Structures are given as structure tokens and as C-alpha cells.
Amino acid sequence: MRIIASFALFLSVPLTASAQAQTFGGVGTRAEGMGGAFVAVADDASAVYWNPAGIAMGATFDVQFSTGRESTLFVGAALPVLGASYYRIRQAAGFTTVSAPPDRQNGGSGEVHVGTFTTSNFGATVVQSIVPAVVIGTTVRGVSAEIDGAGLGTTVDFDAGAIASAWNMRFGVTGRNLLEPEFEMDGGTVRMERQVRVGAALVPRSLPTGVHGPFSLALDADLTRTPSPGGDVRRAAAGGEYWLLKGLVGVRGGIRWSTLGASDTAFSGGFTVRLPRSVHVDGQLTNGDALEQAEWNVGARITF
Q: Each residue of 24-51: pLDDT tens digit?
């Protein structure tokens, strides 16, 4: 556990404040159905986003596709040691354009705007076992960004994660945007801030469906703040899933909220139906007072 604690401390070292970053989440139908409490549960191809180390905990092979509101898209494939992915995230974003350079009198002036910030990410994931109960993973990403359809360029970033297992418990930590990529735009710079999240999960035993079961319970918490149009958020999430009919049907639910007191509470629910030939069909819906519209994801995956 000292390895996990040291890893989390390293990732959470703060850097300078940014103008903009996407909030954590939006990718993966199972993860979103659990309210985003997935850092320690992650065991399918979407682990390349939620916790790269998680692909070592899943099935021999998992490939999946999902799409959601605001044209969110995820395509990924994972083996226990390697993963490949493409995902697109589109979110409302607040950013500041600077109209005058800072000086000693007023520190400069600026104007806050709200637009749509979109990133397209191509990732490759590698996993390594440290000891039998501890696994680390890294995803290297090519990131292309745009605001309101205007391209901002392409750069490289990486994410890292770790999972430790003990009895029926798993503990995870993941860090995203570790290089804090920046993109130049008219009037200033857009930066994707580093994000660090920890999680714990109870995963009693395995089912022949490529996922843990018959149930999972999970709790996640951000260690870092993320700017949003409504103010900084630092989210926590709790969720669970339960498998019925010998793993033929899965149901899940969850809640997320901001520990900073901002209005960010939302509730989630989702399902999975296992079809012949190891095909799974997933659906998910999230809604809350802080959302202008309900968030949803649908997808399909093959797991064996």
C-alpha cells in the first residue's frame, strides 16, 4: 500500500492554475452507470481511460464501442497487458481570454466565455505487475483539441494508474493529463489540468462473463480540483452493480457529487444484457439538478 500512497502523492502535486479542463468521466457505459465510481472496479476496455492498470483484472479479451450525448464516443480493445483506444469527449467549457497584459496595478483584465471544448484521443496502454497483488499501467495519448469547431492543434499526453488487491477488496489510483497539455487559441491558452482520483471497491468473486460479481460496490474521490463553467468541482462518487440470472443480466446505479459544495449532484442507472457469442449490450442514463440535459450512453462489447 506504500506504493499506492506514494504514487497518489506524486500525482497530486499542484501546478499553476489553468484556464480550462474537462471534468473526469463521460467515457464507458458501465462506469457511468455506476456514477463514475470505477477507478478500483475498472476491468474492461474502458479501463484505459478510468485506470490503465485495470485491464490486467479483466477478461482475456474485451473489445467495445459506446456513444452518448454530445457525440461522446469510445472504441477500445484490451488484453491483460495491452490496450488500444480512441475516444472523443465534448463538454461545455468556461475559458478566459486576456485583453491586456498583467501589470502591478490590476494584474491584467480578461473576459470569461462559455463554449464547447472537444478532445479526440488515440491511446496505447501497457500494464506491468510489480508484485502479484499490485499492478501499474500507463496510457500514452495523442490529443487533438478544438473549441466550438475551431481546431487548436495536437499534442501528446499520458495517464497512469495502479491497483492493489487484498482479499475481496481492490484499491486504485489514477492520474490523467499528467503533462497538462496546452493549446493556443485567440486571446490565450487552453490547458487540460492534471486530474487525480482514488477509489476502493468490494468485488467478491468472478462470474463467467468476464467481469467481477455477483456484485460490486465502489467509492471514488478526486484529489484535485477541475474548473467547470459553474466553478471548480472536486467530485466523489459511489455506485454498485449486481448480476442476475447467472450473469445474463446486470443492473447498476450510482451517485456523484462535488465535495466543494458546488451544485454537481447527479444520479445514474444502467443495465447490461448478455447475448450469445459473448456479446454484451449496455445502456446508461445520468440526470441531476446540475445537468441541463440527461446524459446517456449506449454500447456493445464482446468479452471472453
A: 888 999 999 999 999 999 999 999 999 9
Cα distance between residue 238 and residue 295, in whole Å = 17
What's the grid cell of residue 157?
Answer: 499526453
Contacts of range 182-188, beta carbons closer than 8 Å, 24 or more positions apart: 182/155, 183/145, 183/152, 183/153, 183/155, 184/152, 184/153, 185/95, 185/97, 185/147, 185/150, 185/152, 186/97, 187/97, 187/98, 187/99, 188/19, 188/95, 188/96, 188/97, 188/98, 188/110
Number of domains, the chain: 1
Nearest to 41 by CA among 237, 187, 181: 237
Task: Name the grid cell of 273.
Answer: 444484457
* SS3 category, 173: strand
Structure pTM? 0.86
CATH of the domain at 36: 2.40.160.60
Q: Sign of dihedral through CA atoms 29, 121, 193, 175?
A: positive
Assess contact for 163 and 135: CB atoms under 8 A: yes
Q: What is the pLDDT of residues 206-217, one digit of tens each?
A: 554 445 568 899
Cα–Cα distance, 56 to 48 (Å, whole number) = 11
Outline where the chain has alpha helix (H): 2-11, 29-33, 47-50
Cβ atoms of 18 and 180 closer than 8 Å: yes
* Buried b / exposed e along 130-167 (16+ C-beta atoms within 10 A): eeeebbbbbbebebbbbbeeeebeeeebbbbbbbbbee
Domain limits for position 115: 2-303
What is the spatial distance between Cα 238 and Cα 250, in angstroms, rounded to a whole number?
A: 17
